[in-house]
Automatic annotation (TrEMBL):
Transmembrane segments: none annotated. This is TRAP transporter substrate-binding protein. Residues 1-30 form the signal peptide. CDD domains: PBP2_TRAP_Dctp3_4. InterPro entries: DctP_fam, TRAP_DctP_sf. Pfam families: DctP. Keywords: Signal. Gene3D superfamilies: Bacterial extracellular solute-binding protein, family 7 (3.40.190.170). It comes from the Bacteria. It comes from Azospirillum lipoferum.
């Protein structure tokens, strides 16, 4: 006897293969998606994450049709120390790290040229210069990575608790947190005692009197609550280069990048390099202005250094560059040529 097939059953039987195809297609799309693990050394509210990297990830997601997503691990949540971030990226523990190469002293000697005293004037022009300098001179020393951005922190100022920094003599006896090897050398040349520690420890160290203050970019002040424990803030005369700067990089694990489909690589490439460097530079300058306004509003004292004191400080710091040139010459590198190009790029 022939069975009668009900219309509803027939419709269901017809739809099942279509549903299976839809599920399969969705699974393929999901498998084609990429979740990027990004880590850095600052709190999650820092401008680097909130104002640059999160919008950058949003753009990657939009332009990839949702196939690129990001997971953030701020404040070293993947383990290690800031000095080890470059290895977290190199070894694939993280897909992307935002870090300062200078934290890993001696490993990236060429890019350190941009950190020499009195080169960088602000975030945007300094970041453009740092990216151009990287492309001209430092590609080889970052060959183990996919370099997404090279920028600067806009320049480090003096932030002190007990007394303002004015003339060179005012630094004598002061213990200040130094962010990089170059800042340590600068402070030593100026008669102060540099103390190295991660950014997260600076505020507590000042409040306990372990150090008298810090040399740091304006951008790092509010994420570390530095304004709560310092009263005096000294920066160069208007328009003059800062005492030093910190070069910062966004580095991606090279194998992870190379494993991506061509269209996803294109999305990352289109939104990295000069475009991302511009974003970092613009945000840094905006945050610098906002932080100064906040510090002044909260009763902090901000002073542009007297030009004569500034020039005296430059003269006292001259041996730092001379020693750096000698050190890098031992590696067979022409330091004088690097410095000349760095200053020319930063002055544009």
């Amino acid at each position: 006897m022939l069975k009668t097939i009900r219309p509803a059953a027939l419709a269901l039987a017809t739809l099942l293969p279509l549903a299976a195809l839809t599920i399969a297609a969705t699974s393929v799309a999901a498998a084609d998606g990429v979740s990027l693990k990004i880590t850095h050394f600052l709190p999650p509210g820092a401008p680097a994450q909130k104002q640059v990297l999160e919008p950058w990830c949003k753009t990657l997601g939009e332009q990839s049709g949702g196939r690129i997503t990001c997971q953030f691990y701020p404040a070293m949540q993947l383990g290690g120390t800031p000095a080890q971030l470059v290895d977290l990226a190199k070894n694939g523990v993280a897909d992307i790290v935002w870090t300062a190469p200078g934290y890993s002293a001696g490993r990236f000697p060429v890019i350190e040229t941009m950190e020499l005293p009195f080169v960088v004037r602000n975030g945007l022009s300094g970041s453009r210069a740092a990216w151009d300098f990287y492309q001209h001179h430092a590609v080889e020393e970052f060959a183990a990575y996919k370099v997404l951005a090279v920028h600067v922190d806009g320049g480090v100022a003096f932030h002190t608790a007990g007394k303002p920094i004015a003339a060179v003599d005012s630094l004598k006896g002061q213990k200040l947190r130094a962010s990089t090897r170059m800042v340590s050398k600068l402070l030593t040349a100026l008669g102060a005692t540099p103390v190295n520690m991660p950014p997260a420890q600076v505020t507590e160290a000042i409040s306990k009197g372990i150090v008298d203050g810090a040399m740091g970019a304006w951008e790092v002040v509010t994420p570390t609550k530095l304004q709560e424990v310092t009263r005096f803030h000294t920066q160069p005369p208007a328009g003059q280069p800062y005492y030093s700067t910190t070069v910062l990089t966004l580095l991606m694990n090279k194998e992870r990048y190379q494993s991506l489909p061509a269209d996803l690589k294109a999305v990352i490439d289109r939104n990295s390099g000069p475009a991302l460097v511009e974003s970092f530079g613009q945000v840094w300058d905006r945050v610098t202005a906002d932080t100064r306004a906040l510090v002044a509003r909260d009763g902090g004292t901000i002073q542009n250094q007297d030009p004569a004191d500034y020039e005296a400080m430059r003269a006292a710091a001259a041996p730092v560059e001379a020693e750096w040139r000698q050190d890098i010459a031992k590696r067979g590198i022409d330091g004088a040529a690097l410095v000349a190009d760095a200053r020319a790029l930063a002055a544009r």
